[in-house]
Structure prediction request, 173 residues.
Amino acid sequence: MSEGILLSRLERGTLLPPAVRVARLREALPQLRAAVADEIDEIALEATLACLLWETLVQTNWCGFYRRVAERELAVGPYQGGMGCLRIAFDRGVCGACARTGTVQLVSDVHAFPGHIACDDATRSELVLPVFDPAGRLMAVLDLDCPEVSGFCQEEADLLQGLLQEVFGTLRG
Ligand code: SME
Prediction:
């Protein structure tokens, strides 16, 4: 039985300095790994990570997955936050750019990102990471949104990319 994550309680929307955010994420990572250890169902993994990353990354106003449901289309998956767009084509928005290129998109100000999809007008920065299956095929993206500019840093991106590779890149079954 899981009881969430053991971290200091912070008010949602708090944007900590980057070094403090990184330390908090580092503290959460072993707990995240333990929470999903041995699970092999994609939705169960995504739902649990969305829930626990939401608790960890308190700067986010949206935290969750878009799953690849066609060659060049994503559909919303498990998430926390306000209602997100249901479908995103690979040629649209930050999530589409991530899915299309298979690369991390760290956008410090979405107003400067051509084609950004404003599901929530409040969002000012985003971090979107590709999720690959064991064959190296893109299966989803992890979308993290923040209502302030520069809500994410490269080190958070690197740590999260490592987690995603560990959890989904080794999926059995
Ligand atoms: N902002 C994203 C769309 C997804 S939502 O905001 C939840 C984008 O531009 O890809």
